[in-house]
Design a protein that fits this description.
Blueprint: H1 9-23, H2 29-35, H3 41-45, E1 56-59, E2 63-67, H4 68-79, E3 90-93, H5 104-114, H6 116-129, E4 132-134, H7 141-148, E5 155-158, E6 172-175, H8 178-185, E7 190-193, E8 196-203, H9 212-223, E9 231-236, H10 245-253, E10 262-264, H11 269-277, H12 281-292, E11 306-311, E12 318-320, E13 328-330, H13 331-341, E14 349-353, H14 360-375, E15 397-400, H15 404-412, H16 415-421, E16 425-426, E17 448-452, E18 468-472, H17 475-484, E19 496-497, E20 503-504
Parallel strand pairs: 2-3, 2-5, 3-4, 5-6, 8-9, 8-11, 9-10, 14-15, 14-17, 15-16, 17-18
Antiparallel strand pairs: 1-7, 12-13, 19-20
Amino acid sequence: DCTSITPPYNDLVDNLAKVRKILNRPLTLAEKILYSHLCDPEQSLSGGGKIRGERYLQLRPERVAMQDASAQMALLQFMTCGLPTSAVPASIHCDHLIQALDGAEADLKRSIASNKEVFDFLESAAKKYGIEFWRPGSGIIHQIVLENYAAPGMLMLGTDSHTPNAGGLGMLAIGVGGADAVDAMTGTPWELKAPRVIGIHLKGQLSGWATPKDLILHIAGKLTVRGGTGAILEYHGPGVHSQSCTGLATIANMGAELGATTSTFPYTEAMRNYLIATGRAPVARAADEAKKKGFLERDEGAEWDDLVEIDLSTLEPTINGPFTPDLATPLSKFGSFIKEQGWKDELTAGLIGSCTNSSYEDMSRVTSLAKQAKAAGLKAKVGALSHPIGMRSKVPFLCTPGSEQIRATIERDGFTEVLQDVGAVVLANACGPCIGQWKREEYKGEENAILTSFNRNFKARNDANSKTMNFLSSPEIVTAMAFAGRLSFNPMTDSLTDANGKPFKFEPPTGIQLPQNGFTS
């Protein structure tokens, strides 16, 4: 039964008709979704004058998602309202309080014990107020929302800054504080200053080593960490339709690093396929009908507040950092960049996964590289999560699945075995090192460099060491570099030495968007 996760398309289309009468102009997709959720279009939009960037809107979100760290205060506030249940469907996700140290099983067991009081409170509150509860180990909030709740045209609030990840399914997902979430949960109109709309036109197609992660890293370099402030990033053009749904989610996820309110995309065939593959065929059919009514795409002639043009066929892998997600360097220039800065040409850890890059497609492409390395007799220069000083020359290669569904599916399909064979350590399905939940014992107070497929890299973000330089990249580049142990290594041009002493060069990674045998439930 997908009733509770299917947007009320007929009501939204009817409300949008009222909006059209008032504004009498072509609308962007972002405006259609946002304004169709207005409590009273006449009150919010009438009177003429500029709306975007000026007016305050009274909105009615359809869903709320909360992570365990921020849900605590939100629930305490909600409890004071005296309501028997949440006014909108809501969910709680236990993902932020699980610390990475030894590997998935041991870390999960230890974290559940140390945070028992918090988890017990969240579960009991969820039962009392009709809120869905996702236990520790079930996965990261954003991946679970994408797999279970997100739907084209929906307006959702989440108590985490990377809530926009769900925009990969053509909706508006906005990160908020706990008090804002309580507004929605109590049926109180939620207020938002009407965002500007920045159009990002994509043409061409990604190829070779280039990925959706490289696209958003490139955009971060162009717009900077302030370029999206007060705006919705609306992607359009033929290049959108060549991306997977989870690839679009990666792009939307890191829109937060640009300061954007959220990001969105027109409804695509890839989104439809993803909905069906994740057991939401009724939502896909309803979205198909809504699209026929013109709801899930922009109007021809709709105007942007700003426009960015990008040719995907010209993109190469990009590495951003350190200490800011908008310092973008093309891979072909990264080695010389490291040399110019006088940094040691050494990688101390490679980390893949997180909410940004832990999809089945990501893991399939990473596994294709691991298979090549295994065939050549290579192993990642790996050590244990915590290792003695004498082993510092080794590079931990850590993998964080985004959800139990992803973990179980990649295990069934043999990806996990291949990754572990070349030295990967699989962590719990949780935020872990991405948000600083990494009990890293080595390199304390020492300058060192790590490469991650995460989304954020300010000082001390990952391991509490302000001298750790986190460079953001795609999981494919992280994986390839883990076999070299050098920041200057370019897998597109450089070779390694195989087990027989012969030159070995990676072929570009390959993968599939969705599992051929379906996801493991």
